[in-house]
Specification:
The protein is an alpha+beta fold. It has helices at about 20-25, 30-35, 45-50, 55-60, 105-120, 135-145, and strands spanning about 10-15, 65-70, 75-85, 90-95, 125-130, 150-160, 160-170. It has a domain at about 1-120: Aminopeptidase, CATH 3.40.630. About 30% of the residues lie in helices and about 35% in strands. The two termini are about 25 Å apart. The longest helix is centred in the middle third of the chain and has 15 residues, at about 105-120. Pfam families: Acetyltransf_3. This is Acetyltransferase. Keywords: Transferase. One of its GO terms (molecular function) is acyltransferase activity, transferring groups other than amino-acyl groups.
């Protein structure tokens, strides 16, 4: 898909060869707070997931793609979730696995690629993102890409240190309002 290729990254479907990357990322406890993960995943469970990842977004209501650099190294994951074709909306989430790959425009390019795909190919009217209020890097990123703050969910996410607020951001495709 040429539409999912940028200057620094491209997005591709998950493949069986991604098992080790997925295992490492899903079991990284430092991101469990944002992913909602409560327990480790086994390679067997992740392997079963990879066997079914080909299923259609209209069936499973989710699309997960690898973010790859131009050297074909998987550096993160990006998702459309809670896909709602009737109301033409979906949530969007992203994780860049290694901190050395952050703040270089890679995430911004990946979000732009997936947003363009969601608006043009999937004909979505809007995307939304839920971001913890203390995640200033993600807040800055989504605001820079035209997502607007539309709500605050107070004490929404329970963490090891207490509850955290979550901010809802939204981007409406004004080119397609029918």
């Amino acid at each position: 898909m040429l539409s999912l290729k940028g200057k620094q990254v491209y997005l591709r479907a998950l493949e069986p060869r991604d098992l080790d990357f997925l295992y490492e990322l899903e079991n990284d406890t430092s991101i469990w707070e944002i992913s909602g993960t409560l327990k480790p995943y086994s390679k067997k469970v992740l392997s079963l997931y990879l066997e079914n990842v080909h299923r259609d977004i209209y069936d499973v209501k989710q699309l997960r793609l690898c973010i790859c650099d131009m050297q074909d190294k998987c550096i993160g994951l990006i998702d459309l979730f809670d896909f709602d074709p009737k109301n033409r909306r979906a949530g969007i989430g992203i994780v860049i696995s290694n901190s050395e790959n952050r703040n270089k425009g890679l995430g911004a390019e990946a979000i732009t690629l997936l947003s363009n795909y969601a608006f043009s190919t999937l004909d979505l009217h809007q995307l939304y993102a839920n971001i913890l209020s203390d995640n200033s890097a993600s807040i800055h990123l989504f605001e820079k890409l035209g997502f607007e703050k539309v709500g605050l969910k107070r004490e929404w996410i329970r963490t090891n240190t207490g509850f955290k607020d979550e901010i809802m951001f939204q981007k409406v495709n004004r080119k397609n309002v029918s």
